[in-house]
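Lab notebook, bench 4. Still working through the backlog of constructs that have no structural model yet. Next entry is a single chain of 108 residues. Request: give me the structure tokens for it.
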Amino acid sequence: MDRAKLKEGIDLELANLERLTEEIGILRHRYIQEPDFIGIRAAASILHDFYCGVEKIFERIALSVDRNLPDGENWHMDLYPKSCTFGYCVEKRLDSPGEMSVIIHQGG
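Model written out:
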């Protein structure tokens, strides 16, 4: 996979992550107090989709750099350190109380 295709794929996933961030914000404002069962399930679904999106970015990076994904039972746990080895980093940032951003960037 060339760099342009990698960037295009990552940009697509980042747009999906942004949409999911907006969705969780909408959900959060809908439930001022404790969410009901449906609200909890909706939040869990959004969180799962977000996690899968981040994982897809790391998969794209691994396949682009050495055309290989980790294998075995814990392959997905090995994917993050492998991506960091290739120079991509994940930074979690607390924007305000209860608001967190996850930033994926190239560099150290």
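Notes after review: The chain has three helices and two strands. The two ends are 23 Å apart (CA to CA). Flag for follow-up if needed.
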